[in-house]
Design brief:
Layout (H helix, E strand, L loop, with lengths): L1 E6 L2 E3 L5 E9 L6 E7 L6 E7 L4 E4 L7 E5 L5 E6 L8 E8 L15 E2 L3 E5 L2
Parallel strand pairs: 2-11
Antiparallel strand pairs: 1-3, 3-8, 4-5, 4-9, 5-6, 7-8, 9-10, 9-11
Length: 126
Protein backbone atom coordinates (compact mmCIF):
# COMPACT_ATOMS: atom_id res chain seq x y z
CA UNK A 1 0.00 0.00 0.00
CA UNK A 2 1.16 3.51 -0.81
CA UNK A 3 0.10 6.82 0.65
CA UNK A 4 0.73 10.06 -1.18
CA UNK A 5 0.74 13.50 0.40
CA UNK A 6 1.03 16.57 -1.78
CA UNK A 7 2.37 19.95 -0.81
CA UNK A 8 2.77 23.24 -2.59
CA UNK A 9 0.31 24.79 -4.94
CA UNK A 10 -1.54 28.02 -4.53
CA UNK A 11 -1.86 31.21 -6.50
CA UNK A 12 0.72 32.24 -9.05
CA UNK A 13 0.78 34.94 -11.72
CA UNK A 14 0.93 34.07 -15.41
CA UNK A 15 4.51 33.52 -16.46
CA UNK A 16 5.55 32.63 -12.95
CA UNK A 17 6.83 29.40 -11.48
CA UNK A 18 5.59 26.97 -8.90
CA UNK A 19 6.76 23.63 -7.55
CA UNK A 20 4.56 20.83 -6.30
CA UNK A 21 5.88 18.07 -4.07
CA UNK A 22 4.46 14.65 -3.27
CA UNK A 23 5.77 12.60 -0.37
CA UNK A 24 5.27 8.85 -0.75
CA UNK A 25 4.92 6.41 2.13
CA UNK A 26 4.64 2.64 2.23
CA UNK A 27 5.85 0.18 -0.39
CA UNK A 28 7.39 2.89 -2.51
CA UNK A 29 10.14 0.69 -3.93
CA UNK A 30 7.51 -1.28 -5.82
CA UNK A 31 6.18 1.79 -7.64
CA UNK A 32 6.77 1.78 -11.37
CA UNK A 33 5.09 5.01 -12.44
CA UNK A 34 4.26 8.20 -10.64
CA UNK A 35 2.54 11.17 -12.12
CA UNK A 36 0.98 14.55 -11.70
CA UNK A 37 -2.46 14.53 -13.26
CA UNK A 38 -4.78 17.49 -13.30
CA UNK A 39 -8.53 17.61 -13.12
CA UNK A 40 -10.78 19.27 -15.61
CA UNK A 41 -14.44 19.66 -14.76
CA UNK A 42 -16.55 16.86 -16.17
CA UNK A 43 -13.56 14.78 -17.22
CA UNK A 44 -11.25 12.21 -15.71
CA UNK A 45 -7.97 13.31 -14.29
CA UNK A 46 -5.43 13.44 -17.09
CA UNK A 47 -2.56 15.34 -18.60
CA UNK A 48 0.27 16.79 -16.62
CA UNK A 49 3.35 14.61 -16.44
CA UNK A 50 4.52 11.15 -15.42
CA UNK A 51 7.77 9.42 -14.61
CA UNK A 52 8.33 5.67 -14.85
CA UNK A 53 10.91 2.92 -14.81
CA UNK A 54 13.08 4.31 -12.07
CA UNK A 55 13.06 7.74 -13.64
CA UNK A 56 14.28 6.56 -17.03
CA UNK A 57 11.03 7.46 -18.78
CA UNK A 58 9.13 10.72 -18.58
CA UNK A 59 5.90 11.74 -20.24
CA UNK A 60 4.34 15.14 -20.71
CA UNK A 61 1.06 16.36 -22.03
CA UNK A 62 1.51 18.53 -25.09
CA UNK A 63 0.01 21.43 -23.20
CA UNK A 64 2.80 21.46 -20.60
CA UNK A 65 5.75 20.19 -22.61
CA UNK A 66 8.72 22.53 -22.37
CA UNK A 67 7.27 24.31 -19.36
CA UNK A 68 6.84 21.61 -16.71
CA UNK A 69 9.44 19.16 -15.44
CA UNK A 70 8.68 16.06 -13.43
CA UNK A 71 11.33 14.50 -11.23
CA UNK A 72 11.75 12.26 -8.21
CA UNK A 73 14.45 11.54 -5.72
CA UNK A 74 16.46 8.33 -5.99
CA UNK A 75 14.47 6.51 -3.33
CA UNK A 76 11.15 7.61 -4.84
CA UNK A 77 10.24 9.17 -1.52
CA UNK A 78 9.32 12.45 -3.15
CA UNK A 79 7.88 13.39 -6.51
CA UNK A 80 8.17 16.92 -7.85
CA UNK A 81 6.55 18.96 -10.54
CA UNK A 82 8.38 22.13 -11.47
CA UNK A 83 5.96 24.41 -13.25
CA UNK A 84 7.49 27.27 -15.21
CA UNK A 85 5.94 29.88 -17.49
CA UNK A 86 2.54 29.02 -16.13
CA UNK A 87 -0.60 30.01 -18.00
CA UNK A 88 -4.16 30.61 -16.82
CA UNK A 89 -5.18 27.38 -18.52
CA UNK A 90 -2.87 25.52 -16.14
CA UNK A 91 -5.34 26.31 -13.38
CA UNK A 92 -6.52 22.97 -12.02
CA UNK A 93 -6.43 20.59 -9.13
CA UNK A 94 -3.19 18.66 -9.42
CA UNK A 95 -3.08 15.10 -8.13
CA UNK A 96 -0.07 12.99 -7.30
CA UNK A 97 -0.56 9.40 -8.42
CA UNK A 98 1.38 6.14 -8.30
CA UNK A 99 1.05 2.56 -9.53
CA UNK A 100 2.92 -0.74 -9.33
CA UNK A 101 2.00 -2.01 -12.78
CA UNK A 102 4.62 -2.19 -15.50
CA UNK A 103 4.23 -0.52 -18.84
CA UNK A 104 4.15 3.01 -20.14
CA UNK A 105 0.73 3.03 -21.75
CA UNK A 106 -1.73 5.58 -20.48
CA UNK A 107 0.67 7.25 -18.09
CA UNK A 108 -1.25 10.51 -18.34
CA UNK A 109 -4.67 8.94 -17.78
CA UNK A 110 -6.51 8.41 -14.53
CA UNK A 111 -7.05 4.69 -15.09
CA UNK A 112 -3.34 3.99 -15.05
CA UNK A 113 -2.97 4.71 -11.34
CA UNK A 114 -4.11 2.93 -8.20
CA UNK A 115 -2.85 5.32 -5.54
CA UNK A 116 -3.77 8.98 -5.32
CA UNK A 117 -3.09 11.96 -3.16
CA UNK A 118 -5.80 14.40 -2.19
CA UNK A 119 -4.74 16.98 -4.74
CA UNK A 120 -3.45 20.52 -4.60
CA UNK A 121 -5.08 23.51 -6.20
CA UNK A 122 -2.99 25.57 -8.58
CA UNK A 123 -4.51 28.83 -9.72
CA UNK A 124 -2.80 30.94 -12.36
CA UNK A 125 -4.21 34.44 -12.38
CA UNK A 126 -3.17 38.07 -12.43
Amino acid sequence: EVQLVESGGGLVQPGGSLRLSCAAFGSINSIYCMGWLRHAAGKERAGGAAICNGGLSTFYADSVKGRFTISQDGAKNTLYLQMNSVKPEDTAMYYCAADYRLGNAGTLLEGRYRYWGQGKQVTVSS
